[in-house]
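Below is a filled-in request sheet from our internal design queue. Each sheet records the structural input a requester submitted and the sequence that came back. We keep these sheets so that new team members can see what a complete request looks like end to end.

REQUESTER: design group, bay 2
PRIORITY: normal
MODE: inverse folding
CHAIN LENGTH: 228
BACKBONE (tokenized):
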């Protein structure tokens, strides 16, 4: 009889942001797949979880997926976690989930934190229609090309952004869209959480005295519908 794959969301910074069901699931399953077992060990130690763990990450996901599909068919349940937030959102999960769905194996999400949703709902940007654009591209030409394509979009746009090029990205938004409002949500749920909400020029002025550090979600509405 096939068992269940649980997709378990974990904190994006604040250890209190985990559900009772997530902790119980991680304790009860016979096997946890983790993006980085050393990283997840910290979470396990914090919540007294001692379930055996194996690695499931971007570099082995294709090779090991069949093994875990067989495990789910023949041996027991599996819980999958990533380093932070919801597996499958800019994190490995998709390959295993797709194979399980193809094979008729139950997949259940244990919902919880996700940086893009956390950022969106506190940004003041319209939440009725939005698009997640994954990580902002690494190269400037690719970022500008993408921004040009988004010019006629009505939906709020959400990017995961890197501290190494977020300032350049903000400047490129200014070049393509002018003085629209941008929400740059930094270190969400952590001690130094910060919401930089303003025009690109205002954000770039802030960066002059506070160079970008930490984790960022960048949000804007191409039609500047926020009314901010
Ligand atoms: N699966 C995760 C989720 O549910 O949000 C996303 C993982 S992705 C590999 C990591 C990126 O998410 C970071 O580079 C950053 O852009 C964003 N992120 C994760 N945690 C964050 C936080 N606490 N504050 C701001 N951005 C965060």
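RETURNED SEQUENCE:
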């Amino acid at each position: 009889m096939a068992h269940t794959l649980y997709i378990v969301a974990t904190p994006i910074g604040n250890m209190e942001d985990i559900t009772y069901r997530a902790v119980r699931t991680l304790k009860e399953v016979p096997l946890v797949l983790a993006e980085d077992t050393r990283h997840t060990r910290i979470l396990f130690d914090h919540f007294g979880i001692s379930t055996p763990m194996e690695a499931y990450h971007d570099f082995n996901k294709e090779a090991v997926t069949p093994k875990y599909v067989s495990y789910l068919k023949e041996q027991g349940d599996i819980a999958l976690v990533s380093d932070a937030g919801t597996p499958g959102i800019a994190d490995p999960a998709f390959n295993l989930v797709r194979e399980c769905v193809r094979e008729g194996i139950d997949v259940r999400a244990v919902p919880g934190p996700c940086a893009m949703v956390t950022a969106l709902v506190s940004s003041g940007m319209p939440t009725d229609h939005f698009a997640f654009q994954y990580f902002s591209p690494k190269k400037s030409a690719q970022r500008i090309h993408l921004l040009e394509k988004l010019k006629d979009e009505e939906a709020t746009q959400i990017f995961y952004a890197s501290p190494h090029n977020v300032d350049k990205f903000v400047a490129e938004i200014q070049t393509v869209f002018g003085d629209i409002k941008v929400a740059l949500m930094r270190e969400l749920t952590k001690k130094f959480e910060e919401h930089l909400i303003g025009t690109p020029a205002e954000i770039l002025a802030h960066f002059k005295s506070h160079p970008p550090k930490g984790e960022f979600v960048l949000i804007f509405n191409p039609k500047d519908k926020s009314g901010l």
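SHEET NOTES:
- The chain has eight helices and ten strands.
- Residues 12-13, 82, 84-86, 89-91, 114-116, 160-161, 185, 187-190, 215-217 surround S-adenosylmethionine (CB under 6 Å).
FILED BY: M.R.
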